[in-house]
Amino acid sequence: xxxxxxxxxxPPPFLGTWVRVYQAIVVYLVLLILAFYVFTRIYQ
Amino acid sequence: xRTLDWIVLVASLVSIVAYGLYRSRGSNTVxxxxxxxxxxxxxxxxxxxxATQASAITFISTTGQSYVDGMRFVQFYFxxxxxxxxxxxxxxxxxxxxxxxxxxxxxxxxxxxxxxALASVIFLxxxxxxxxxxxxxxxxxxxxILGWPERLTTSLMGAVVITYTVLGxxxxxxxxxxxxxxxxxxxxIAALVTTIVLLPHSVSFGDAxxxxxxxxxxxAVTTHFDWNDRFNMWSGLIGGTFLFLSxxxxxxxxVQRYLTGKSISQSRLSLLFNAVAKIPMQFFILFIGAxxxxxxxxxxxxxxxxxxxxxxxxxSDAYPQVAAQYNQAFxxxxxxxxxxxxxxxxxxxxxxxRARSDYRGAQAQLDGARAQASKLVEQNGGEKGFTDTNYxxxxxxxxxxxxxxxxxxxxxxFAATMSASSGEINSLATVTIVDIYKRHFRPGQSDHHYVxxxxxxxxxxGVYAVxxxxxxxxxxxxxxxVNKVGSLFYGxxxxxxxxxxAFRRVRGTAAFLGMIAGESxxxxxxxxxxxxxxxxxxxxxxxxxxxxxxxxxxxxxxxxATPGTQPAQ
Lengths: 44, 569
What we know:
The complex is a heterodimer. Chain A contains one helix and no strands. Chain A has one helix at 18-43. Chain A is mainly alpha-helical. The longest helix of chain A is centred in the last third of the chain and has 26 residues, at 18-43. The two termini of chain B are 49 Å apart. In chain B, helix 9 packs across helix 19 (447-472). Chain B has helices spanning 3-23, 30-35, 42-53, 56-69, 80-89, 91-98, 103-110, 113-146, 150-197, 205-214, 233-250, 252-259, 264-298, 307-314, 319-346, 349-379, 392-400, 405-441, 447-472, 478-486, 490-502, 508-528, 536-554. Chain B has 23 helices and no strands. Chain B is globular. Helices cover 76% and strands 0% of the residues of chain B.
């Protein structure tokens, strides 16, 4: 399957590009795990 | 259930179905019936994806899981955002561009007809098994808690689901899912608030969280790695990523949700919404279970939450001793909890450490008594490996929640069952018609013919699910095995799609052999090792890719065959 068939990306409604949105999701996940870790430690 | 509860339950269900059918008017072509004319906005798809994934057992079992084992189950979802990012970047644009109706249709254009057929059959077998259990499992719990006949509950839920799914197709399914998620959110928030309000006046919300944490019920993250432990950060991040890649990238029940999107952008947003919202939602549900745990520190819970099994052991010789131990442990834990809160408020570290130790000792004693009671169930002819986890939350709801709210929580269970079930039978019908019937038996028929066939296929899978649910009670312990079967197929499906997207030299025969090898690897892992099932997807996917690449590079000419370029329909 040629990747030429893929139509050009529509921009996301925020952050300008999809790559930035994906990066934001990964950062969000890291922060979430960190928050859960701190939560666990505080109430352990 | 009192009159107001029935009014809330019936009103919730009727409004869900009526709204779904209203929004599905005009679903009279294959494209509209199966893919909503590719017109859905991102928020509807997002909630539909969430609703399809969350069955009733998710809500019933997750809260019980937290009560018994704490919140570490949330780690299971850590891989979900990563999987969503990968799917948005790779799968979504390709599926949209090729305008496929099913994920497996794409495999024919990339590989060949036999690979598509194998993937379709694997999906039908796996999803077909779980479709019955999706209806049966909550019906079983409702029958035990409320005394409703299982047949009545499965038939009622099945009839409602079949009606709107057959009549309205995917649009009815999606818009009903939106309503169902609304009911689910409202019901869960109300349940949490009420649980907190029901705590003794001397125990603040902060104290409740403190007590849950001291008993190990707020253990959201475990960094220790263990192959055999289902829920730690690493199994969630690695195994979970592969599992959710399989589920959202290769399972038609999910793929069909985002194929209905107006555009690639809308489909991506629907998946990314789940990437952001799913983990907090699961955390919230688990937190409800933790608060139910704290509630039961001050109000004595039954030794077992499944009353029929409690009655079973009531006459046994060992019961009085176990019950006495349980009562003593409960009293000790309640006093220790109050002492711990007092020591915490006083800011006395020495007293707090002593009280904490006593509190945990009492909890261990209580857990020990419950474990002995479970063993007694087994020894007195009960189910092997008996656990009452799935009965904890609904038992609490029916005993302690105010009138009206009980009906709302039961509506949540119904809504979750119907949303998961409708998504399943809708996708089963789509694969049956598009990948099997139209492709192999009756190609070239009119649009009207395929719409009609899709309705009949939906009806067939709906009736099948209800009948399977009615028969599932006779499976006994085999239900566990059947449930496990569902987790045995994803790895090979994922491996096939990884080959399709990432290894352009691999052709149909290599992919087909790879899938068979991957499936064999998963079955061998399941039978001969204790490796947790979350790793099956990693193992299966790796085996598919390794074998397909080996076949590709060892077989002269295998890599030069020309694949099809257009998806067959």
